[in-house]
Amino acid sequence: MSARIVHPIEQESFRRLRARLDTSHFAPLTRAVVERVIHSAADLDYATDLVTDETALVRAHTALHAGAPVVVDVEMVAAGITRRETVCRLKDARSGPELTRSAHAIRLAHEQVGPGALWVIGCAPTALEELLTLDAEPALVIGLPVGFVGAAESKAALRESGLPAVSNVSEKGGSAVAAAALNALLYHPRPAAPLTPQHDPRTKENQ
Fold first, then answer.
1. For the whole model, what pTM was predicted?
2. Which residues have a catalytic role annotated?
3. Contact, 124 vs 73, CB < 8 A?
4. Do the bridges between strand 50-51 and strand 165-168 make them parallel or antiparallel, or are there none, so unpaired?
5. Which string of DSSP letters, residue by residue, matches the chain?
6. Is-contact 84 139, C-beta < 8 A?
7. Which residues have C-beta within 8 Å of that of residue 9, sequence separation ≥ 6?
8. What is the per-residue pLDDT across 106-137, written as a single tens digit (0 to 9) for each?
9. Ramachandran angles phi, psi of 12, nearest 5°
10. Which of 28, 38, 142, 146 gets the most CB atoms within 10 Å of its CB?
């Protein structure tokens, strides 16, 4: 993958973000995710709304840069991830009496990719709920669906599942912020030596 060229507008945006919010206390990958999610939404509240785990992010970063598949729930998430091919089976999915189309798409994707993928869910709570019923063995679940019905509950269930995850507590979320969280891991350089997880007061075990 060629080196990413950062546009001056993006550089200035991050400069202003850091002038308004001190993110220096976050561990490296947590900081990368928090900053890029905030940048995507212009919403500083994500600094306290997001729930991350640096150890999980380190392992996911390694898996991602080793070529692990990336699965998304909708094409809008895929559109935001420009430097990596993704799997989205929504076009092939069908709804049923007890299964939404988004949930069926997750089943189809799981059949395709198997264990070890990174799952990026930014739209449908039912997609996240379905993923939690599967033996997906994910490298990471970025669970940031949005909505007044089921979104906060599905994210709480993700945290309770013990799976490696990025989530948030509130009902907000969406395709842009979910893609941003994945992009933070994509854009973060691979270190010469393996990343070492660091304690972070905002990690999952302290929620």
1. 0.88
2. 39
3. yes
4. antiparallel
5. -PPPPPPHHHHHHHHHHHHHS--TTS-HHHHHHHHHHHHHHT-TTHHHHEEB-HHHHHHHHHHHHTT--EEESSHHHHHH-TTS--B--GGG---BTTB-HHHHHHHHHHHHH-TT-EEEE-S-HHHHHHHTTS----SEEEE----SSSHHHHHHHHHHHT-SEEEESSS---HHHHHHHHHHHHHSPPPSS-------TTBGGG-
6. no
7. none
8. 999 999 999 999 999 999 999 999 999 999 99
9. -70, -35
10. 142
Sheet with 140-143, strands from edge to edge, namely: 50-51, 165-168, 140-143, 118-121, 70-72
Tokens matching residue 117: 């993928």
Length of the chain: 207
Q: How far apart are CA 148 and CA 89, in angstroms?
A: 25
Q: Which two tokens stand for residue 137?
A: 């063995």
> Could you read off the pLDDT of 69-81 as tens digits, one per residue?
999 999 999 999 9
Kindly give the pairing relationship between strand 140-143 and strand 118-121.
parallel
- Cα angle 62, 136, 121; round to 5: 75
d(CA 67, CA 200): 27
